[in-house]
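Listing S7. Sequence submitted for prediction.
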Amino acid sequence: MTLRLAKYFIIIAISILFDCYTVPPISSAQSQGSIGKDQKGNEQKNKNDPVIRLETELVQIDIVVSDKSGKLVRDLRREDFELYEDGKKQQITHFAVGTAAHPATWLRVEKKKPVKESESTVTPTNAASTEMSAGRYIVIAVDDYHLAPENLLIAKRTLQRFITEQLIAGDQVAVATTSGNLGLFQQFTGERAVLERAIDRLSVQTRRVTSSTDVPHITDYQAELIDRGDQDALGLAVQEIMRLEPQFSGGSGGGQNGSRGMGSASGTSPTDRAIEQAKMKARSIVGFNATYTRTTLETLDGIIRSLRQLAGRKMLVLLSDGFFLGGNSSSQTFDLRRIVDAATRSGVVIYSIDARGLIATPPGGDASEPSTGVDVTQPGVRARIEQGSIEAKRDGLNALAHDTGGFLVVNTNDLNLGLQRILDDNETYYVLAYEPPESRRDGRFHKIDVRIADRPELKVRTRKGYLAPLAKAKSDQPAPKVAQNQKEKSPEKAAQEAKAAKDAQIRSGLASLFPLREIPVEVSADFIDTSEQGPSAMINTHIDASALSFSPADDFQRDILDMTVVIFDERGKVVHSYGNRFNFKMKSGTVEVAAKQGLSYRYAVPLKPGFYQARLAVREEETARLGSATSWVEIPDLSKKQLTLSSILLSVGEESMPSPDGTGKEEPQTMRPSTAKRKFKRGGKIDFLTFAYNAKSEKNSPDVVIQSQVYAGSKLIYASPLNKIPSPANADVQRLPYAARISLEGFDAGQYELRLMAIDRTAKISAYRRVNFTVE
């Protein structure tokens, strides 16, 4: 259906639009009394029920259950589960079933006051819980500190294929590295182009502490064994020193294995000096590797804890060659229970993939390690060490996965099969919650065990527990008195501190890995090119006004919002920023309309060709609540004179638009302004607009055809015929507009992807664009 184009794509001023429905504010606590059921049969809570304030803790875990053959069990009920903490049975207070298509309901609780992570309990609350739903979130954690160059190349190809073939509409993926060198690219996104660029940026982090010329040449695992007192591993190193170092050749007291007296280095014989040299070298290697292992695990711990506010089940897929957990010294080790605790608090399950694939260690050692010659006096020792190294490197990967409810993928050269196993493992899961009978403030690790009543053959995978904080001892000393003039701050000082606190809050919102939803906001950065401004990013913002706290003042409703938008280039440099304070003063009827329709803001930013990220934060002055969102946009180089499509600009189709008549002709209609809110009602309509740039023309008549396609996951569910883009008289043939409508009749609720393919039949070249949207 052809649409008359509105000139909204060059509007820079504020446009306040109104949409949807009013949602009454949810109380921070609600009683359990119900007042009926909704259309799905779920109980509705009475918002006027008295608030019940509780000081309690909530432990919430998600569980996967499989049978003997590994097939997921999908038909369990609440009464089938038994849950124990430290061996004591707990009462299950919440139960839900989730699938990839329909995520389980989680409980969301409101904290009594902000507390430090080190002081927090599993989920402290001062109120009854409210239910939150969440989609599928996947963190791809690439251990670039421990991946060999050849394995990183395989991992990159695997992830590119995952993005192309296994990622579906609605998935939110973050690519992170243990070195933290991806910067902006570590945020969640569903945009394939962004993820592909993030994967392209992956690189090996050089960290070798030894070289092929070292004597002795000690492998990482051999160093671990020497540090633990393994005499055979030490004997290999001593033998190499005695054989290759001139100052040791001909030395006395070598013994059969060149290792006599290895329990002491107090003597001055060549053997004793060789023993000390080998031990010092081993300690250096162990300490060096332990530093990188701790950095790797601390990075994972930080990523997982940062996801705590994101409701729902999250998957973290760790791609690594493996690592050693530390030598003989306790100072070298990292307490893996910290990551288990973080995963329990954040709802994260770890799946590990050994990126080495099928491993066959050749005689004489790992082919990736420089040769140190044949060990004539200790045959088989090096082979034993290298074989042990393979398993020892997997210990950490296996522990992380096993203790958080996931599994380790090993011995496969097709890593995509491993990724598919991981995705399949999340097709059905269960969410359980319980409240411990007493507050845990003892600093201990509390074990969680879940069983299936009367069905011991079923395998249950979930997180193994959590670390309780250690209660601080109360001081008997009274708090020192503060002078009256020190207590009272000047208005100027108080205002400065308030502004600093507000700015810090906005910065934290801009830096979040995922959208903050206290105030639901959406942002889209779309590429367009106009004759007035040239290549630009159209920044569309949508604020859910039903979540705002308008206050009555005289005959009006008032609220104040601060909005900040920052645009970064691919290197993380700020290229543009702007902020606005909106002081709303509306009649009650206007507020009701705004609550239904939302508030929209539109801003165009001229940009040079490149890849950019727009970050948005919106803060409400009165409540200090925050919302945030991000969007990526690529500004192509149109000077190359290649066929290029603008971004796909979406808007809601007007309900009053007439349907095509019996003659097949369609009435031209005006298209509504594009929206950042990519959510549309079932049975409704989507209008979209795009521009084709650089079409080749002969006698001022371009010949460009375009097809629209809609995918649900990897399944094509709609495809239009090839339609020629019209070229109106006196039109700018270098900016050909095309607008059309798609009916959502027959579309189920869910995530979809709209793809456009344009073909310049004169130049015989194609161009593509795609955008995700949701049907509610």
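Caption to Listing S7: primary sequence and predicted structure tokens for the chain studied. Residues 53-136+427-467 form one domain. The first strand starts at residue 34 and ends at 37.
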